[in-house]
Amino acid sequence: MSTGNFDIPEFATKGEAVDQEVRVRTGLPKSATVPNLVAYGSDLFDDNRNSQMIHESTFVEFEERHTRPSQMYITPAKRKPSQSEFSPLVSPNKRMRVESAQSEETSSDDQMPAKLLAVDDLAPISSTPTAAQLISKRKFGLRLKRSIPWGVQRILTRTIVEQQAAIQRISVPLILDDGVRNYCHSSAPFDPVYNTFPPASVDIRLLRPISITVEELLTFFPNHLKWHDAIYRLAQNGWSCGDMAKYINLSRGLLPKGARRGNTILKWLQAADKDILGLDRSGSTGRKSWKTTCFTVKGWTPYPNIRGPGVIDYRLVDLADGVAQWPENQGARLLTRAVKHAIMHMNRDVRLSQIQGFIRENLLMIPSLNTMIKEVNNGKHPDVVANEWYRSLLLKQKNARIV
Q1: Is residue 29 part of a domain?
Q2: Which stretches of sequence are listed as region Disordered (predicted)?
Q3: Residue 331 shares a structural domain with residue 310
Q4: Which long-range contacts does 354-362 make (Cβ < 8 Å, 24+ apart)?
């Protein structure tokens, strides 16, 4: 049988055969009936153009809350022969729809009672809880005796969310700031040192072959002066404990009351000298003239008195928490570019362990930078140049206050 250029299958003109085919495919009981299925033809026919739109009045209705597949109701109606019965069948598995146009033509008095389809009885479908809901109970709250950095709070919150998600056998939901606040509670007053400085437990060695400048070290990792290799590098390259403390306070915008003090850093330097050089109660003055030229951190030894389970991975955006003045010019290298890019493009979950791939993916190595070793060979040791620039800056600020 054919119409125009289209071949029509023989069974397309027989409504009973179509109904029988539907019952076989869907497993409907023999007593159930369903509306006629629309088989789409060519868009060249006006009758078929309208059939491609689904009306708001649909035959398949679900309960609003926790509807089971076994509770799916189909409201059959007495139908009239439609143009779709005489249209070519095209991809029935992809484009079959319920013929909603016929439901408008049929009055409510003509409709038959709804039939309950017998389908496998499955568990109710429920929405996945949010992170805040998973940790909303008081027993999951963490009471902090003192303030801790926001980045650490996020890590602790994610740990408990992952545990609860595993118990309930669901995927880990997105963790927002509200979820962190619902889990971590502290009555301690805000302290910029304890609330914003990344802790010494952050594994800075995850930077691996990426060179880090003095400015980046003091800005993003001020607590890592506790690491003996870090403070030893600065002290050998001309940085006094007072210079280190003042730069940290400047980059973090700390007021004198809550500022980092040189005496505290001096204790860390003395511990490093005792461990590396075997010297007791040394300081930043009277040191040997040779200077370190290793600008990566992959060989550093962690701070020996780290609290907790050990070193941790940290998010790039959390390194910038509390930063008031960013590294500039030659002091801003790949680490600074990566942190800024993560903040600008809302890449909140990129960690230190992923920084190399993050730099390559976003082409952050462009424009290229001279290697720090090349600067040393040119007679400009980066650490020494940074110290001279910083001291000149302090002198200008001092003269400006006098005037």
Answers
A1: yes
A2: 73-112
A3: yes
A4: 355/206, 355/207, 355/210, 355/316, 356/208, 356/209, 356/210, 358/316, 359/210, 359/334
Residues 69 and 153 in one domain: no
Q: CA-to-CA distance for 202 and 219, rounded, in angstroms?
A: 14
Please give the residue range of the domain that contains residue 171.
Answer: 131-189
Q: Which helix (H) or strand (E) holds 74?
A: strand 73-74
Nearest-CA neighbor of 282 among 291, 295, 294, 273? 273
Question: Who has greater pLDDT, 173 or 284?
Answer: 173
Residue 320 in domain: yes
Last residue of a domain, one of 169, 189, 209: 189
Q: DSSP 3-state assignment of 7?
A: strand
Residues in the chain: 403
> For the chain, how many structural domains are there in total?
3
Residue 301 backbone phi and psi in degrees, to 5? -100, 130
> Of 389, 344, 380, 384, whose CA–CA distance to 364 is shortest?
344
Mean pLDDT, rounded, for 182-199: 87
Q: Beta strand pairing status for 184-186 and 142-144?
A: parallel
Give pTM, 2 decimals: 0.66
C-alpha neighbours within 13 Å on the C-beta side of residue 291: 16
Judged against a pLDDT cut of 80, whether residue 91 lies above it is answered with: no
Q: Is residue 249 part of a domain?
A: yes
Residue 154 CA to residue 183 CA, distance in Å, equals: 9
* 91 touches 79 (CB < 8 A): no
Same domain, 178 and 212: no
Nearest to residue 90, comparing CAs of 40, 138, 139, 134? 40
pLDDT at residue 356 is higher than 50: yes
Question: For residue 55, is it within any domain?
Answer: yes
Same domain, 164 and 97: no
The residues, any chain, with a CB within 8 Å of residue 164's CB and separated by 6 or more, are 134, 135, 140
One-letter amino acid for residue 388 of the chain: E
Q: How far apart are CA 201 and CA 48, in angstroms?
A: 67
Instruction: Tell me, rounded to whole angstroms, the distance of Cα 276 from its chain centroid.
Output: 39
Q: What is the tens place of the pLDDT at every residue in 276-319?
A: 888 877 776 667 767 888 899 989 999 988 887 789 999 999 99
Angle between helices 228-236 and 262-276 (to 10 degrees): 100
Pair 57, 148 in one domain:
no
177 shares a domain with 58:
no
Are 138 and 45 in a shared domain? no
Of 142, 41, 139, give the one whose Cα is nearest residue 89: 41
Residue type at 213 in one-letter notation: T
